[in-house]
Design goal:
Blueprint lengths: L5 E4 L14 H12 L3 E5 L10 H6 L3 E4 L4 E4 L2 E5 L4 H13 L3 E5 L4 E2 L9 H10 L3 E2 L12 E5 L5 H8 L3 E5 L4 E6 L4 H11 L7 E5 L5 H6 L2 E4 L5 H6 L2 E2 L7 H8 L4
Parallel strand pairs: 1-2, 1-12, 2-3, 7-8, 12-13, 13-14
Antiparallel strand pairs: 3-4, 4-5, 6-7, 6-9, 9-11, 10-11
Length: 262
């Protein structure tokens, strides 16, 4: 593979597992591919406020696409950010709650979650432990939120009615957990990749995307090559051009070798 590539990496289930453990082989692969002249970007559904772990950035990346394509950084500078209008956020919070969903609002500086809604939820505890003071409450910051997307726990919700009411404003990424991401209409990881390529004057065919979950499908469809981790769900694997081994079984290293990035 002679052309220099831009390689995009999802975080959860791709760079690390549920315990935020990153295989040493993954670190070596990313550093080696950059030494070979390729560029590496984080490309996550997480908003920027939720991408703070120093172990991630210690690997070395050229940029970050966060919030399912709603924010892009390159060379330490923010070059794009899609901020949701506060009136839309208020309407959305009220609507999702009306249908039994529990929202988490996601921005570039803060996440917003009402602890009473997630008191018995392990994800709420994980969020609080990971980002500390960057986690604020929806209620205390009412009307002052600064976000680009939101996610909702949907296990007891009337989901279809909620989606119908908000379909003109959002695209929905539905996970098995059950969680749904509400992303501004027309945005996804693939649009983030396209914008990076436009900015860097690179043919989108010269991109490779690594991922494992539903919000990576748009990335696979946009990129020149989509690589699914071995721990991906079957629908994600079907969208990929290549399926590697799971994250903790040197999946990124093996795929980078197969694709001649390293």
């Amino acid at each position: 593979m002679s052309e220099k590539k831009i390689v995009f990496f999802d975080i959860d289930g791709t760079l690390w597992n549920w315990h935020n453990e990153i295989p040493e082989s993954t670190i070596r692969a990313i550093r080696n591919l950059r030494q070979n002249g390729h560029r590496a970007f984080l490309c996550s559904g997480r908003s920027r406020a939720y991408i703070q772990n120093p172990d991630l950035f210690a690997i070395g990346f050229d940029g970050v696409v966060s919030g399912c394509g709603t924010m892009i950084e390159y060379g330490g500078e923010t070059i794009f950010y899609k901020k949701l209008d506060v009136d839309l956020v208020e309407h959305t919070v009220n609507t999702v709650r009306k249908y039994g969903m529990r929202p988490i609002l996601e921005g570039r500086e803060y996440l917003y979650m009402d602890e009473r809604e997630f008191a018995k939820d392990n994800y709420g505890k994980k969020l609080k432990a990971e980002i500390g003071p960057r986690l604020l409450t929806i209620a205390d910051e009412w009307g002052r939120w600064e976000i680009s997307k939101l996610s909702c726990a949907t296990e007891t919700a009337d989901r279809e009615k909620c989606y119908e009411e908000l379909k003109d404003c959002f695209d929905f990424i539905i996970h098995d957990i059950p969680v749904t991401e509400f992303v501004p209409k027309g945005y996804h990881k693939g649009t983030g990749i396209a914008k990076v390529c436009e900015m860097l004057d690179t043919d989108i065919k010269d991109t490779i995307a690594f991922g494992d979950s539903a919000n990576d499908i748009g990335m696979f469809r946009a990129a020149g090559i989509g690589v699914a981790m071995g721990n991906s769900s079957e629908d994600v694997k079907l969208e990929a051009d290549y399926v590697t081994t799971p994250v903790m079984e040197d999946g990124i290293w093996k795929a980078c070798k197969h694709l001649e990035l390293i």
